[in-house]
Amino acid sequence: MNPIPGVGVVIVDDQHRLLVIQRGDGVGRGLWAVPGGKVRWGETWREAARREAREETGLEVKVGPVIWTGESVGPGQPPEWHFSLVDFECEVVGGDLRAGDDAADVRWVPIAEVRDYPLVPTMFSLLEVL
Question: Which of 26, 33, 97, 125 has the greatest CB tally within 10 Å of its CB?
Answer without folding.
Answer: 33
